[in-house]
Give the backbone structure.
Amino acid sequence: MSRICIIGTGYVGMASAIGFAELGHTIVGFDIMPERVADLQRGITPYREAGIEETLAKHLKTGRMRFTANQQEAVRSAQLVLISVGTPALADGSCDLTGLRQCVAALRKCDLTDCAAVVLRSTVPPGTSDDVAKQLENIAEVIYAPEFLREGNAVADFLKPDRTVIGAESITAAVAYATLFEPLQAPIMLTSRRSAELIKGASNAFLALKISFANEIANLCDALGADSLDVLRGVGSDRRIGPAFLMPGIGFGGPCFEKDLKSLERTATRRMVNCELVSGALRVNERQPKRIVEILTAELGSLQGRRIGVWGLAFKAGTDDIRDSLAVRILEDLSERGAIVRAFDPAIRSANLPENCTLVTTALDAADADALLVLTEWPEFREVSPHAIARNLSARLVVDGRNALDIERIVDAGLRYRGVGRTADPVLELEAVS
Ligand code: UDX
Ligand code: UDX
């Protein structure tokens, strides 16, 4: 069993920490934020995920996991050092590597005698881990090992990977890291650091591309009176295409996709390479939240003074994360148009919302409005009685930006329903069939 140090205890760092502890390794976590370390020492995680606090409590008790605010002490005697500090986007779309640079500068002063490899896990532009390797030359071997963890499901994703990608220039270092993943019995792929960095960027770009494609087709469904869920289910049933990430909606949000696509686009531009599909996926995604507001204005006219109920603020169901959530961007748009918004999210108890937007504590309280917008696909929204919604909703309009509700039940309650490429009255053009 190995002694592993994890630098940066955000969701990637914590999912890896818990995953490795579950596999029997000993973990020391370091974070630059002392309050985060103090919380973790008390068993409080920085993000929400089913079962994570119970698992953390278990490993704090057995002593297999501990946390410190002292990087030198965290790294001492570690056999592997993993870096998962945040690499957020700067205003120009490039990746902010300040945290990574600070962490590597500090590592140069640490005792890395026992360390077989420093493993970079943060998403970075290709070439970054070669730079880190130069910084740590004669001090430690450097590996780039991307993560493919989804927020809200990160520990499960860690323990059931489709593949483990290892970008290394030293076989000894690669083997030391690869050995950790043997019990998971997933394919291990060994490549160069640069290729591993691009595998991460290209994977996120392809997933985002699928979503933007689904949104484009759903918008076409709207114009044709076709049902986007049927159409995309039909498309995704082809094994060459696959059904995953074809769910149309308000667009992709969250701290990763937009940032990673912009970073990839920038990397390509700097090397005079056209990445039109990546740029196209971003363009579609910028338009999609505006489209939801267009649907609303097409039905209601001016939004000045109109009361809009909103269900969902998190960037997807299963998380309380609103970083780069398109729901929040839609709220900003509504606020600029003079709407008065009552928003509810089952995972969010407080948030800084735009002007005239209030966070309320129940779904029905939010639905006390002229119209209702669904912006996150929380399954519990399907459980709310459409008749109870109908009693309070004065303009009787539901715009389902996630196609999350049951159309029939909404319409039976006397409400109008508009989804994304999903209409309550499918047009049957039988002549076209014959
Ligand atoms: C991760 C990856 O690091 C990022 O590259 C990827 O694109 C998305 O997932 P995430 O875990 O979401 O980021 O980041 P965050 O939740 O912000 O946590 C990063 C942690 O690193 C924070 O706790 C922060 O305090 C810590 N950190 C940051 C350091 O310990 N040192 C630093 O210098 C900077
Ligand atoms: C993503 C990647 O999936 C993961 O591999 C990577 O490591 C980090 O980025 P995450 O951002 O946690 O994970 O969420 P994900 O489940 O991929 O969803 C991203 C966004 O796309 C969400 O806003 C989600 O609602 C949206 N989405 C996803 C769709 O609109 N339609 C889909 O079919 C799938």
About this structure: The first strand starts at residue 3 and ends at 7. The two ends are 67 Å apart (CA to CA).
